[in-house]
Design brief:
- The structure is a single chain.
- This protein is mainly alpha-helical.
- About 50% of the residues lie in helices and about 5% in strands.
- A hairpin with a 2-residue loop joins β1 and β2.
- The longest helix is centred in the N-terminal third of the chain and has 19 residues.
């Protein structure tokens, strides 16, 4: 079974707890755009040749990363950080738009290279030439 990118909208609907095929009109368009945007971000992390291959058959972890990023965009399109209605309060910690977390980037790179690449970040050492 092939796993093309972007995943179908029905896969996102399932992740959202909806019946496949239930998103219509504007909601379906938003879901498709979120999936396409997340796919672009994932493909930007790997060589062009591999990105093209993944459009036909992507590793399961890569599809999962795309679906998780698209879900965040679909559920929080305005990028709300906190929202309250009466006694109910919800908080979101990221900004609007599709984004990949550092862990997701590491998972995509691991799928691309087969290596764990256990470190994402920078190394800073103190200067020996000053205070």
């Amino acid at each position: 079974m092939s796993n093309p990118l972007p995943p179908p909208v029905s896969a996102l609907e399932t992740r959202l707890g909806l019946t496949p095929g239930s998103l219509l009109d504007e909601d379906r368009s938003r879901a498709e755009a979120a999936l396409e945007d997340a796919t672009v971000l994932v493909e930007a992390e790997v060589p062009t040749s591999l990105a093209a291959a993944w459009e036909e058959d992507a590793p399961a972890v890569v599809r999962l990363v795309v679906l998780k990023a698209a879900r965040r965009e679909f559920e929080n399109p305005r990028g709300l950080e906190n929202e309250s209605l009466g006694e109910h309060s919800a908080g979101f910690s990221e900004t609007s738009g599709v984004y990949l977390t550092s862990r997701e980037i590491a998972q995509v790179r691991r799928a691309a290279t087969g290596r764990s690449g256990g470190f994402v970040g920078s190394v800073r050492t103190p200067s020996a030439y000053g205070n």
